[in-house]
Design goal:
This protein is an alpha/beta fold. It contains nine helices and nine strands. It has a seven-stranded mixed sheet, with helices on both faces. Strands 2-3 form a two-stranded antiparallel sheet. Strand 4, helix 6 and strand 5 form a beta-alpha-beta unit. The longest helix is centred in the first third of the chain and has 18 residues. The radius of gyration is 18 Å and the shape is globular. It starts with 12 loop residues before the first strand and ends with a strand. The C terminus is likely disordered.
């Protein structure tokens, strides 16, 4: 983990990844990619392994180089849209209460998915959708490029140094770091390389995220340091 940037007195903003951070969609994504792989007679486990670390067009190039990528993408989009309508989704513990408590205009969603799917999943899980959503269609370069997070900050009227990125995946962490933002990792047993703070679950991060957004950095909403018995933030590791 890296040292956390010095925070300033300006208003703070929180930028959330979606899948794996706020919404548990792992089983859905695995099922979608398995169905897609079976359509093309490919090894589903290998396809999913590649898909976890690359964008769809890169996945197609790696696992089905002889196929038309536009056809591959259309098939994937069809499966994803169907899953939004019929799949079972769950918000991670603490997500709903946290998002509903954040100051209006102080947070955004930054996703590699498409906004209509995010809205469908949020409707299904009871999560509020903020005015600012940066999706795959909004940028020409996705994560790990800094472009998605920089665009979210621009739309919020925020400086990158005043933004907190909450992520679960290495590509998203890299995106936030390259944008010059504070990055906290959640929903992983061990820290992703580069995060400033690590929380094993989103629930463990809820209080500190609320404190970042609503008060001086390093204090809880009650105005007192949110630290555990060892002097570190409860549920987190910090350099």
């Amino acid at each position: 983990m890296t040292s956390e940037p010095t925070q300033h007195g300006a208003r703070k903003y929180v930028l959330f990844d979606v899948d794996g951070t706020l919404v548990d969609a792992v089983a859905n994504q695995r099922r979608i990619w398995r169905t897609w792989a079976e359509r093309y007679g490919l090894d589903a486990d290998e396809v999913y392994r590649v898909a976890l670390r690359t964008r769809p067009v890169e996945t197609f190039a790696a696992v089905a180089p002889d196929r038309d990528p536009r056809e591959c993408l259309a098939a994937l989009h069809e499966l994803e849209d169907e899953d939004v309508r019929t799949g079972v989704y769950a918000a991670f513990d603490g997500a709903a209460e946290m998002l509903k408590a954040l100051p209006h205009g102080a947070w955004a969603l930054v996703t590699s998915n498409y906004e209509h799917r995010v809205r469908g999943r949020f409707d299904r899980t009871g999560l509020p959708v903020p005015p600012v959503v940066v999706d795959a269609a909004a940028v020409s370069e996705g994560k790990p490029s800094p472009a998605p997070y920089l665009l979210a900050a621009e739309r919020l009227g925020a400086e990158p140094r005043d933004c907190l990125v909450v992520e679960d995946a290495p590509s998203g962490v890299a995106s936030g770091l390259r944008a010059g933002m504070t990055v906290w990792g959640v929903n992983a047993p061990t820290p992703v390389d580069g995060v400033h703070r690590h929380f094993r679950t989103l629930r463990e991060a809820v209080r500190d995220i609320g404190a970042f957004a609503s008060g001086p950095h390093g204090t809880s909403a009650m105005g007192t340091p949110d630290v555990g018995p060892a002097g570190r933030s409860a549920g987190s590791s910090q350099c």
